[in-house]
Design goal:
The complex is a heterodimer. Chain A is mainly alpha-helical. Chain A has one domain. Chain A is built from eight helices and no strands. In chain A, helix 2 packs across helix 4, helix 3 packs antiparallel against helix 8 and helix 6 packs antiparallel against helix 8. Chain B is an all-alpha fold. Chain B has one domain. Helix content of chain B is 84%, strand content 0%. Chain B contains eight helices and no strands. The longest helix of chain B has 33 residues. The two termini of chain B are 22 Å apart. Classes of the chains: A mainly alpha, B mainly alpha. Chains A and B meet through helix 3, helix 4 and helix 8 of A and helix 2, helix 3 and helix 8 of B.
């Protein structure tokens, strides 16, 4: 079903326009890379606070409140440029083993964030000002960093076509 | 200059040859993973540069002094720039003479990088190591904007420039 959707998408004018020009694809890809620095860079500040590595003396909720507008804007930027990259090469992407790895890792990263939100974050008032947050929060921080590293590496490898297509 | 580039490329080839043999597949994998590591280091550069520049511009962790934020992320800035330099240098040596020497995007990227480093470790360092009054001057805001623009252009020259042109 996804393959048929990808084939339909690839035939659309938008996909043709994105893939056809020698300029659009590299520009969108560069913007996606800039997004890595902005979105992941600031998400890293947050994860490192959860680990008790950076800004230990700043309350956890303050770091979150001050960074969330930037992280959220960065996430939207990453999604827009990332979807554009997919739309340019849907069939190729869907058939790429590292695209699938990236999708799975993205889902896991989201699940990790949701688990954190409905888990240890509910009691954040108890540990807001401690330099080193409780173990559950640190685990969430480590998982986030590890999953995003997988997402970045897998994303870069989608650019290489030396893997046999899955579809 | 060209002969140095040629020597670097030959050295890369011989190191690769003795390390992984003539397996093209393995050396391509190593290059791709070096590229991925370069991208991971970029995220850390983004972290260490942005949190300070945003603060100078009045965003982010506004309740902490600029100097304190800069001091805390300094090891991360130096570490990530070191990681960028090592992974970038490896990629550069792989095609130093046959691709990069004649590549305008490479020289543009290196010029922008030199400018970004010069700004970061002179004027910007002076601003972020002073008191709040110094970091609140209009010139500090200009430096923060130029810093973000310079680093962004270095990154874009890498992905869009060297990767494609």
């Amino acid at each position: 079903m996804i393959l048929r959707f990808s084939q339909w998408l690839e035939a659309t004018d938008v996909s043709q326009a994105l893939a056809g020009s020698i300029w659009t694809y590299p520009i969108v890809e560069s913007l996606h890379a800039i997004g890595v620095a902005v979105f992941l860079g600031l998400l890293l500040v947050w994860d490192l606070r959860l680990l008790g590595v950076l800004f230990k003396r700043v309350p956890v909720t303050e770091v979150w409140a001050r960074l969330i507008p930037w992280i959220a804007a960065g996430a939207v930027f990453m999604m827009v440029t990332g979807i554009a990259l997919f739309v340019a090469k849907p069939v190729y992407s869907w058939g790429h083993v590292f695209f699938r790895i990236k999708v799975v890792a993205l889902i896991l990263a989201l699940a990790n964030a949701v688990a954190f939100h409905f888990g240890i974050e509910r009691r954040v008032v108890d540990w807001d000002c401690v330099p080193i947050p409780p173990r559950a929060a640190r685990i969430a921080g480590v998982c986030s960093i590890a999953l995003w590293a997988v997402i970045v590496v897998a994303g870069r490898l989608i650019g290489y076509n030396w893997f046999p297509p899955l579809v | 200059m060209l002969s140095m580039f040629q020597w670097l490329e030959a050295t890369y080839a011989s190191v690769m040859d003795s390390a992984v043999g003539t397996s093209i597949h393995l050396s391509v994998w190593l290059f791709a993973l070096t590229e991925a590591a370069h991208l991971l280091a970029l995220a850390v550069v983004g972290c260490a540069v942005l949190i300070v520049d945003l603060r100078i511009l009045g965003w982010g962790l506004t309740r902490q002094p600029v100097a304190q934020i800069a001091r805390e992320v300094r090891p991360w800035l130096l570490g990530s720039l070191g990681g960028m330099a090592v992974t970038g240098f490896v990629m550069f040596t792989s095609l130093a003479a046959s691709k990069y020497y004649t590549h305008p995007a490479f020289w543009l990227k290196m010029s922008l990088l030199a400018a970004a480093l010069a700004l970061t470790f002179t004027v910007r360092q002076w601003i972020v190591s002073g008191d709040e009054a110094r970091a609140a001057r209009p010139i500090a805001k200009v430096v923060a904007v130029v810093s973000v623009l310079l680093w962004s252009s270095v990154a874009m020259m890498g992905r869009g420039g060297l990767g494609y042109l």
